[in-house]
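Sample intake sheet
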Amino acid sequence: MKNPLLFLLTILFSISFWSCEPADSNPTSLLNVILIDAPAQWDSVFVEVEGVDIEMQVLGRESETETFFLPYSLGDKVIEVSALIAGEGLLLGRDELPVGKIISATFRIGDSHSLFLDGDRYVLPLANGGMTEIPLELEMDLEQGIAYDLILDFDLEKSIRVLSESPLVLELDPKLSAVSGIGTGDLKGSISPTTLRPALYAITSGDSVNTHINSSGSFLFRLPAGIYTVYVDPKDERYQAGIIRNVEVIAGKSTDLSRITIAPK
């Protein structure tokens, strides 16, 4: 991973230090924008990231909106998004914003994207006429003196389209979701055998979020609080799928499913 900057301890320290600052006549809050990935089947995927636009209704000026750009300015802008799994994340930007309500966000990317498969590099041109601004649905209140995490989940499984198998031709249609770190919890565990590359789905109320494992077999979901069914797709016809029901995710806490063994048929 290029320039991995995450950072739970760093962010927690900055939150506790910053939140002790005295109030002033221009009240602000601190916003951390963190990128994570729901990975795909490819060996590695690289995406050029410019930053995030945050559109707000500022307290006292609700009749108009203001946009604040949080650039990704640390290191190489071409990020190995596929490495941001199992608790890894990338701090895309951090800034003090005025108190008010975030009403939307826009993820901004460049046009230099690629992936590697079996040692070969493939260019990932953008779909949809090369759209480099990806709108995100988001509503989030910002209060004075509080630090917030805005988590962007890049779903590579849904974002990469195969246009041709032979020769392999691909395109990138970025699919992301945005969620406030407040009210979410972690759901983690590990899979064996680690030679498999299963897909895992956390399902609730007809919606699902997916992820994969890292090289040691570990996985992590960051989810809104609720009751989930976890479905394990082994991606190998020699093994059985698995289902774990009634898994509770609690806001601000981590739920550990321990090790899941995928059984052969």
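Comment: Confidence is low (pLDDT under 50) at residues 1-23. The CA atoms of residues 154 and 176 lie 5 Å apart.
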